[in-house]
């Protein structure tokens, strides 16, 4: 059964009430709370969407990591991440997700289950969605890799990022970068029909523990329309 269930309830983590804008204790709404905490506090809590917005404003040019280092290894791999070429020495069992996060400091890609079951670690390799927790870095010599930090252009959010923001398509945000990367890929995949059911099936590898599926589907369909008009 897909986790993308139309009946999934979107519950407020503060109030426990259903609905994204439901008031919590002392009349506090989630949206109001998020505004009061501010972007830096949310980023520290691991909120991917805010990280995306901040990164878009700060022009996320990845800094090439040193070719060798204390966490290097005997195998040399060269690949491009978000348009920046890297040459790294890695161990044979170095996992792509760990290399992206720990060697290149691209922490927008999240480690959820670390077993290929949640989709939080989704990146694009040569334009195709990949669970980076299941992929060895040495397998990607010559590949073009895109992470969530690489989909905003010139300080402007990708239409999928903007739609997630507009539709409040997240709660804790931990799954959000993976959801958006899968969404970007499927919107460019002509094999996936445009209806909601097909979209849910295509996104079923991305789990949202907060149950924000209804808003995620709405956001992706909104982005689909904007990409068509672009
Ligand atoms: S962390 Fe890779 S699928 Fe869950
Ligand atoms: S927004 Fe919390 S896991 Fe999806």
UniProtKB/TrEMBL annotation:
GO terms for MF: 2 iron, 2 sulfur cluster binding; carboxylate reductase activity; metal ion binding
Positions the record marks as coiled coil are: none
Which EC number(s) does the record attach to this protein? 1.2.99.6
Q: Which InterPro entries match?
A: 2Fe-2S-bd (IPR002888), 2Fe-2S-bd_dom_sf (IPR036884), 2Fe-2S_ferredoxin-like_sf (IPR036010), 2Fe-2S_ferredoxin-type (IPR001041), 2Fe2S_fd_BS (IPR006058), Aldehyde_Oxdr_Iron-Sulfur (IPR052914), Beta-grasp_dom_sf (IPR012675), TAT_signal (IPR006311)
For the region Disordered, what residue ranges are annotated?
Answer: 1-27
Q: What is this protein called?
A: Aldehyde oxidoreductase iron-sulfur-binding subunit PaoA
Q: Which Gene3D superfamilies does the protein's record reference?
A: 3.10.20.30, [2Fe-2S]-binding domain
Q: Where is the 2Fe-2S ferredoxin-type domain?
A: 75-151
Per UniProt, the enzyme's principal EC class comes to: oxidoreductase
Q: Which cofactor does it need?
A: [2Fe-2S] cluster
**Record keywords, A-Z:** 2Fe-2S, Iron, Iron-sulfur, Metal-binding, Oxidoreductase
Q: Which CDD domains match?
A: fer2
SUPFAM superfamilies membership:
2Fe-2S ferredoxin-like, CO dehydrogenase ISP C-domain like
Keyword Membrane present in the record's keywords: the answer is no
* Pfam families to which the protein is assigned, alphabetical: Fer2, Fer2_2
Q: Does the keyword Iron-sulfur apply?
A: yes
Please name the PROSITE patterns in this protein's record.
2FE2S_FER_1, 2FE2S_FER_2, TAT
């Amino acid at each position: 059964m897909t986790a993308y269930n139309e009946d999934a309830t979107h519950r407020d983590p503060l109030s426990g009430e259903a609905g994204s804008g439901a008031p919590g204790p002392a009349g506090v709404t989630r949206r109001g709370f998020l505004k009061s905490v501010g972007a830096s506090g949310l980023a520290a809590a691991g909120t991917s969407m805010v990280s995306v917005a901040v990164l878009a404003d700060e022009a996320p040019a990845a800094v090439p990591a040193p070719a060798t280092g204390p966490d290097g290894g005997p195998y040399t791999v060269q690949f491009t991440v978000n348009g920046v070429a890297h040459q790294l020495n890695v161990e044979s069992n170095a996992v792509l997700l760990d290399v992206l996060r720990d060697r290149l400091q691209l922490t927008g890609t999240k480690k959820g289950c670390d077993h290929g079951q949640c989709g939080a670690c989704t990146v694009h390799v040569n334009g195709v969605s990949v669970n980076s927790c299941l992929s060895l870095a040495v397998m990607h010599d010559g590949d073009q890799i895109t992470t969530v930090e690489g989909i905003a252009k010139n300080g402007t959010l990708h239409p999928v990022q903007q739609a997630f923001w507009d539709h409040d398509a997240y709660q804790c945000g931990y799954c959000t970068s993976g959801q958006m990367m899968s969404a970007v890929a499927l919107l460019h995949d002509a094999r996936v029909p445009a209806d909601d059911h097909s979209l849910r099936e295509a996104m079923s590898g991305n789990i949202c523990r907060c149950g924000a599926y209804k808003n995620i589907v709405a956001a992706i369909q909104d982005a689909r329309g904007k990409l068509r008009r672009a």
